[in-house]
Amino acid sequence: MESSVLLLRLNEENNNKLNEIMNKLKEITNITKAKMYFLAGAYGYFYNTREKIQNNPIDVTRVEFLERSEYKVQKILLNSIYQSQKENLDENINKYKLFEEYANAGVRKLYDIFTESSEIEEFIESLELEVIRIIEALGISTEENSCKEK
């Protein structure tokens, strides 16, 4: 039986970067660090970039999402990424460790966007544009785009 509590970890440097992003985001929104962690994991996965936690792992947050509806999408994301990669994994790695590696790499990529932005609003706008670009690259049609095509 799976544990209902998941410890999400980053290496210390990436944790500090995520904290810096979160401090600015909290000025204008109430997004949780856990949700940003999952965004980072998805971002790292999209770019097929993984980074192992070499030393000094930091527990970012405890996410008791297996029975909480607000983390349903994150659970699907975590499981889907693992299912898509499990045949290609050389090492004996579980889905949580795999996701940690993608999240570590993803935080670095998000931090690059963050540091290139002069204000937090610009960062959010850049993220929105990046998400749209990724959706289009994946060939996923949004409802709004589908309505325009009709």
**What is the radius of gyration computed over CA atoms, rounded to a whole number of angstroms?**
16 Å
Termini separation (Å)? 47 Å
Query: Helical amount among residues, as a percent range?
Result: 55-70%
Morphology: globular
Number of helices: 6
Strand content: 5-15%
Describe the protein in words.
The protein has helices at residues 12-25, 33-46, 72-85, 95-116, 120-137, 143-149, and strands spanning 6-11, 57-63. The radius of gyration is 16 Å and the shape is globular. A two-stranded antiparallel ribbon has the order 1-2. It has one domain. It is mainly α. Helix 3 packs across helix 4 (95-116).
Q: What order do the helices and strands come in, and which of them pair?
A:
Blueprint: E1 6-11, H1 12-25, H2 33-46, E2 57-63, H3 72-85, H4 95-116, H5 120-137, H6 143-149
Antiparallel strand pairs: 1-2
Helix pairs in contact: 1-4, 2-3, 2-4, 3-4, 4-5
Summary of the model, kept short:
The protein has helices at residues 12-25, 33-46, 72-85, 95-116, 120-137, 143-149; strands at residues 6-11, 57-63. It has 150 residues and is mainly alpha-helical.
Identify the notable features of this structure and list them briefly.
two-stranded antiparallel sheet; 150 residues; 2 strands; 9% strand
